[in-house]
């Protein structure tokens, strides 16, 4: 903006202004009277002027005692940046019905009226004092609609009077989308979010808002929607396993939200292709969220008709009020949910061997034992003599049997406890099979001897010091490289993950080692005396991967939070290091995905493994994946080499629509698509936007409070321009001219006396 300058006269002398003015006036008056006696006999009409000039000179000289100073204040003002984010999710199409005051306009229309309507539209008032960007939050994407910056020098055009888009996003994301809309958080920036606060996507808005506190970027949340729920029944969530064996039972929990009048008859049922699998009658109570446990046999579910993948099964969960009172419900769009199940052909296999039953391996074993996706074999050394000990007996008897495993975990024991051929198979298991190997060090130091065995090429570290290692307490820290490793993420927000690790319970012991040149350190353990040693070291070997863990005390993370972090880490590490799973395989091509179940609008990761006719991995290919939706080509994806497993390539799909999908692969540009196809079905999980029909005020208040912002209801939105004035960045430059000791002040006295002398001479008064 144009700089503004304000000029003021100040007095800084030892005498206050009023006494000085009084003395100066008296002396000037006396001087005038003395001159007046001399000039009263002069007939010239200008004879009184010299007396006035001399009096003014005396007045100016005496006024110097008050220390007059001229102060110039120049203000340079830079506008603040305000990002106005408008929630364009499906819940914004709802109307609200406060008691006695029905509202016929939707939340979306009311939000637009706030921004664009009235004599002084809110968006225009904000843009007069700030740089403004208007964006729409559409599920997981951000759409920029309008901006006005630099006092209109940078603008996308006239301010719109309405928006030509519909609130149709099936999710509300108040984490990643707001991060993208705001960009780098800088001082002088603010977010204004117009939403009902129904966040139902991955990520944590609370963590995002907390991260803005230090950058002085406040969030002003304008809440739309009623806070009293209307009469309605909705399905909030259905927990179900991803895959089940035919002989097993499908068990889970259905969460519903009940805001209907009490004592109305209702029913909850599970059905598949018209066949009822489970049902339960209940009476409404209007008290909010309720949970129902369900169970049915997988073999009772009918086989899919006309479906490419016969292992994929679907069932529907339906809820409703029976009888005439069903019309009381606000909407029926949230009364059903489709869930996909896979018939499990084989589980992923884990072999866990350790020198003794340490806490770490015991807890890790329990995690995988409870996970329906894994089959785990665990053995501890019984210190029996010869090759008949428990470790050697638990190890697969043939190489082919070992190759049926996906991951091997080796604990604190010497390689001599296994048969020599077992060690050789283990080397091939990693390099050729593409299996994963995890090494967990221990205080007995037996793992060190593996660096002198036939699998020394697999070991990613060189041990230093003695077996006593580094004594605790030792603090966990992630390295910069770990930010590229999702397996080490323990929070939904990537930005909060690095700060979480140092707060985890400390380890009391760690082996001391250094990473070999071909390995990568992902985490460290640091002592109070600034000693440090690698905690997690990763190395890619052939088609497989190896991870070294320097301490066996991750189990301490369970203190007060049980499995919250410990189980999550082990499951993620296993999925990362183990040989990638593939649902469809041929001799040369294997195709798989990261999950067995997807919901509409979610993204999936496609994995492809290529081998040549001799069964050797192909590490220099440029394969492509073809996505086919309902028989129509939907996308072609260029795949990138997996840095963890040679010969494996990955690609991320765009957001998937509900329905039947097929994945085909070609080995590179110009190659024919493979006959091998992987079939998927993306299930319609229902509209998450309608599972809750009220404004989520606690979430919006927390986001505003974490950033020193404000929560406002829609009728309070007019306060925003005043609240946003705090974003203006001002720089004030002050300049002072000391008059009483300056040439200007002395020059004024000399000028007055000079003119007075010249006039006296002209009037012949000298």
Topology:
Blueprint: E1 4-11, H1 17-39, H2 49-63, E2 68-78, E3 80-87, H3 107-116, H4 122-129, E4 130-138, E5 141-149, E6 154-155, H5 176-182, E7 189-195, H6 205-211, E8 219-223, E9 233-239, E10 243-244, E11 249-258, E12 265-272, E13 275-283, E14 288-297, E15 312-321, E16 336-343, E17 348-354, H7 359-370, E18 374-380, H8 390-394, H9 399-402, E19 407-410, H10 420-431, E20 436-440, E21 461-463, E22 470-478, H11 494-500, E23 507-510, E24 513-515, E25 520-526, E26 532-541, E27 544-549, H12 566-577, E28 584-585, E29 589-593, E30 598-599, E31 605-610, E32 624-629, E33 632-638, E34 640-641, E35 648-652, E36 659-666, E37 678-683, H13 697-706, E38 710-713, H14 720-724, E39 729-738, H15 743-762
Helix pairs in contact: 1-2, 2-15, 6-13, 7-12
